[in-house]
Model the fold of this input.
Amino acid sequence: MPSYDFKSPRLFVEAALAEGSAVSADPAQANYLLNVMRLTDGASVLAFNGRDGEWRCEISKTAKKKADLVPVEFMRAQPPAPELHYLFAPLKHARLDYMVQKAVEMGAGVLQPVMTQHVQASRLNVERMRANAIEATEQCGVLSVPDCREPEKFGTLLAGWDAARRIVFCDEREEAESPIETLRAMPPGPLALLIGPEGGFSEEERAALREADFVTAISLGPRILRADTAAVAALAVLQAAVGDWRNG
Ligand code: SAM
Done:
């Protein structure tokens, strides 16, 4: 990885970023910069908005609890958004937060909740998912905030699926053979990774996945992993076998 500034605070902003055009920090960001970090006028912060790359900004305190970020130096160009779609049955509360954050760190570009028959969390707060995704991008230097989509029912998602994007289906019933070899044997093209709920997929869902010619099942080894562990393991294997870990 090229050398990179991990020391300065990094903030996501909605506004456009261009040299000299001040952007207002929102109240939570202003509180973090002025009160938590105790930064003063002229201190450096990195800012990104998912469109204009990363900028080094200087803080300008405009009121007791308000601050502007003034872009002064262009640091990194905006890369294309990560190509990988991550499909997952929502977990509850903290474990969902964890899974979303890890998926972003591991390079997912689209987060698609899927309501399966045995899903534990019957509702999902997309705003909370997006807040977690933004926090992960701020922490790990990613410049694109993933597209956080509304939940879809499993059947609807599969019926409307664009077969040009292969689904890598993590199935604990698959023979524990090397997922790396299976992944490398797939035809090249865009990918989605699917992890099931804590209760696993139903027989009907598993059969539908196994019948679809745009689905490849992989094993994640001889142990049953919790869904959040499976997410990180599967994303690591996929990125190492056919994804962006190969390109440095
Ligand atoms: N309820 C299932 C059972 O007890 O057999 C386990 C479901 S597991 C906790 C949640 C999800 O993680 C699964 O649906 C699958 O997508 C993934 N997973 C967990 N362990 C796996 C493994 N060894 N191989 C492939 N996928 C796995």
Notes: The pocket of S-adenosylmethionine is lined by residues 170-172, 195-196, 198-201, 219-221, 223-227, 230 (CB under 6 Å).
